[in-house]
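Go through this fold for my students:
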Amino acid sequence: MNELTTALWARRPQQATRIVDAHAHAGPYSVFFIPDPDPAGMIAVMDRCGVAHAMLSSHLAIQLDAAKGNAATAEIVERAPGRFTGYLTVNPWQDPVAELERWGDDPRFGGVKLHPDLHEYPLTGSRYAPVWEYAELTGRPVLTHTYSGSPYNDLPLVGEVAGRHPRATILAGHSGVTPLGIDQSIEVAERHERVILEVCGSYNTGAAIAGMVRRLGAHRVVYGSDFPFIDLRMSLGRILFSDLSDDDRAAVLGGTITALLGKTGA
């Protein structure tokens, strides 16, 4: 039993490693109820589980209004800079250039968030061109939603973008979601060294995560939860009880994303 699971069974916050959630959100969502979606409620859960930090974007930015939502994200980070780093959300239909110009140099943001499925625009589309230029110039990662079979963010589209922009770091959110998508995401990452797999999603398992690490190395896999859209404890448990070495587990839980953010100066 490792120190992380020992703390869990003892019902106390773990202190063995720095955990960073690479895929979180904040605020209410219009389609269904999310309990405690505010930053204070999120921090309480993070503290209970020993999660040090989370990278987040507001649900408002993703779903309805990128400009107002990015301002909300910046305010959340301003109030709790030690606990949160923002994702700058780019909606391809809501002036991507203006959002990048407004927030691209703001230290409260450490990367860019895309949701092609929700915005019904393909990852390979020209409206995202400023995002890839920004990513290659700054080194900041781009977290994109992925889903196997989607016309907007299927894994072959991730591979196409990675081929066009080899200096851009792409976090494949959900790693394609489905078992087929997870296999496809590994194959894409094997071909493109700057594609990193993020593991949250309803279909992922500890065994699948261990398989990702065996194929790619822990430096290519990061913990994310979709919190509070999905409870972070479920995604966290998959990694805590997965068949990983202590060093690999620590890298997936926070070491890899921390090193990546450190390279950007965020």
Q: What stands out?
A: The first strand starts at residue 19 and ends at 26.
